[in-house]
Design goal:
single chain, 271 residues, alpha+beta, 9-stranded mixed β-sheet, 7 helices, globular
Length: 271
């Protein structure tokens, strides 16, 4: 079976390796797995779960990005702005080629859930969260980019334009692709390319002990959003089936994101 729940089960089985002093990318159990339909270095996503080929409880197909830090801060998002879901059509060609070569029907599930494998370490403790991207995406990406550009206009132009004119200009800049392109400038010997990088706020830093004490030191956590009691029970059912006998090793809690509602946490201690 292929799904993010089964990936969590695999992480539990090999959780001692998550405390080793090597990058997530270098960990043997994350380098290769029959669960993965693609593997990338320096491009989104770092991993993709295979689609479940037969009708089942699980769809599979989740996209996973690694975020590794030597502190309880979350490292910057350099390649893509974090989201809860991503269109397959928006992925880079080499990623789609890998997924198709593995046997995935890219049209079968055009919109995929996005997860972040977040690890933070202090001097002696480690926290790891397999975290749904909606924890970071509290407003739509287009709105985020547009609001940021509106601030730039306000700082650079201020009273020179009316609010209507500034709103119109800001509305023109709302996709990340507009900034990622390399620009060719006449008489220039270099080609500029602007790049959007994002950082987690205090509310978005699930590793912050003061804000999210439910995420314990030396623990591995699966963190999923829910918007009804039925959806919460569904997460519990799917996790229990995927983990089988290992389900007895997890505890279940809820955390409240101050900007984006409730999340259920399945926690497994390293020891």
């Amino acid at each position: 079976m292929y799904s993010i729940y089964h990936f969590f089960a695999e992480l539990i089985r090999e959780r001692a390796r998550l405390t080793e002093d090597m990058t997530l990318e270098a960990l043997p159990n994350l380098k290769a797995s029959p669960l993965f339909s693609c593997r990338n270095i320096g491009a989104f996503p770092d991993r993709a779960i295979r689609l479940q080929p037969q009708p089942a409880l699980y769809t599979g197909g989740e996209l996973i990005e690694f975020k590794d830090s030597r502190s309880y801060s979350i490292s910057s998002f350099n390649s893509t702005i974090p989201t809860g879901k991503k269109l397959v059509s928006a992925l880079k060609p080499n990623v789609k080629q890998q997924m198709a070569a593995s046997g995935d029907d890219l049209l079968l599930l055009p919109l995929r859930d996005v997860f972040y494998l977040v690890r933070g370490r202090d001097k002696i403790h480690t926290k790891v969260c397999l975290l749904h991207g909606s924890f970071f995406e509290t407003i739509p990406v287009e709105q985020l980019i547009q609001a940021a550009f509106a601030q730039i206009l306000e700082e650079g132009i201020g009273a020179q334009l009316s609010q209507i004119e500034k709103d119109h200009l800001a509305a023109l800049f709302k996709t990340q692709n507009m900034f990622n392109r390399v620009r060719t400038i006449p008489n220039a010997s270099v080609k500029p390319r602007f790049r959007i990088m994002t950082e987690a706020t205090a509310e978005g830093n699930i590793l912050n002990t003061a804000r999210y004490p439910e995420i314990k030191p030396d623990s591995l956590n699966l963190v999923l959003p829910f918007y009804s009691s039925g959806e919460q029970e569904r997460h519990i059912e799917l996790t229990q089936i995927a983990l089988e006998h290992k389900f007895g090793q997890v505890t279940i809690e809820q955390i409240k994101h101050p900007l984006n509602g409730w999340f259920i946490v399945f926690r497994c201690l390293f020891n």
